[in-house]
Design brief:
Low-confidence stretches: 1-30
Strand content: 35-45%
Strand order of the largest sheet: 13-12-16-2-11-15-14
Order of helices and strands: HEEEEEEHHEEEEEHEEEEEEEEEEEH
Radius of gyration: 42 Å
Distance between the termini: 43 Å
Length: 347
């Protein structure tokens, strides 16, 4: 009885094995061929990534250059201001009266100068005849010179008064955004008092701090890559590394000028600055060869004619290739398309 039972069990195992081999044969016949990738080590530039903060290249606080009372404020905080636009207006009665007085004084100086020059011309004709003494001639010449200088002084006062009148309308030095307002309408201001602050959105720059050990390598670079939060990358060939270190961190400040007129860039935003510091050997795989399952990353590794799911640890992605930090070695063969392996398994 026992011998018959053992023979019966062996018969069942043979049938299961034959069924498995048949299924494997059908799978092999219906499955599509899978392209493979042989892992090799590549030499890529080694990059240093640092946190950088954006700041405006042009930022200023507009101050009053004349005294008076504010009668109108045209822009407020967060308003976009074009270049040359009138930010606010100050009373101009005193400045206008000063300009009128300067123009009247100039007209008087011109009239006195004309009279002095004519008198000098007459004396110059009578002096050779002996009708005019040397003292009188010298006095006429000195008076003509004085009146000519008085005309120049009166003209300068007109320019000064006109400039003071123009100061009653405070204009924007550049196009940008108003960030702070220090005065209110109806308030009396004096020369030097702060009125409005703002920055230009035309060009930004990234500011970061570089450790001392990377200083020489970074000074030899010709370009710096800036990575934004939305994935956009910008290249800049204009950057300045300060020649003195910060006393607290012993690092060197660097300013990286970004290309002009970049949208959605504001001061205070954090970005990533990448510098090339050397070369290193890395293993990379394309995104199509990776199977992402929740937080696990894996590839299908070829072993003994089949594919086994092997977990890997990924680094950064550069030009569509993921850097493999661990899980693969040089010479390993993996499936080029992880999705195709899953399709074949389903078949």
């Amino acid at each position: 009885m026992k011998l018959e039972k053992v023979s019966y069990n062996m018969g069942i195992q043979q049938q299961v094995l034959m069924g498995f081999l048949l299924t494997f044969a059908v799978f092999s016949a219906s499955a599509e061929p899978i392209a493979t990738i042989t892992i090799v080590a590549e030499t890529q530039p080694e990059r240093l990534t640092l946190d950088a903060q954006l700041e405006a290249t042009k930022a200023a606080t507009v101050s009053a250059q004349t005294s008076g009372r504010i009668i109108k404020i045209n822009y407020d905080v967060n308003d976009i201001v074009p270049q040359g636009a009138a930010l606010l207006e100050i009373t101009s009665k005193a400045q206008g009266a000063e300009l009128a007085a300067a123009e009247a004084e100039y007209a008087k100086a011109v009239a006195q100068n004309e009279e002095a020059q004519k008198q000098r011309s007459r004396y110059a004709q009578l002096f050779p005849q002996g009708a005019i003494s040397q003292g009188d001639m010298d006095q006429v010449i000195a008076n003509a010179r004085a009146t000519a200088q008085a005309v120049s002084a009166a003209k300068a006062r007109i320019v000064q008064a006109n400039e003071s009148l123009q100061y009653t309308v405070v204009s924007a030095p550049f196009s940008g955004v108003v960030t702070q307002r220090y005065v209110e309408q109806g308030e009396t201001v004096a020369p030097g008092q702060a009125l409005l602050s703002g920055f230009s959105t035309e060009q930004m720059r990234a500011v970061t701090y570089i450790p001392l050990r990377y200083l020489d390598a970074l000074r030899a670079q010709s370009q710096v890559k800036i990575s934004l939060n939305d994935g956009q990358q910008l290249l800049s060939d204009k950057f300045t590394i300060f020649s003195f270190a910060d006393p607290s961190s012993h690092s060197y400040k660097a300013r990286i000028d970004l290309p002009k007129n970049q949208p959605n860039l504001m001061p205070g935003m954090w970005v990533k600055a990448q510098f090339i510091t050397g070369e290193r050997s890395v293993i990379t795989v394309p995104k199509s060869a990776i199977s992402f399952q929740n937080e696990m990353s894996a590839v299908y590794l070829q072993q003994h004619g089949s594919y086994q799911l092997s977990q890997i640890r990924l680094g950064t992605m550069i030009d569509g290739q993921y850097e493999v930090l661990s899980g693969l070695t040089v010479g390993d063969v993996i499936a080029a398309d992880a999705y195709q392996v899953l399709l074949n398994l389903d078949k």
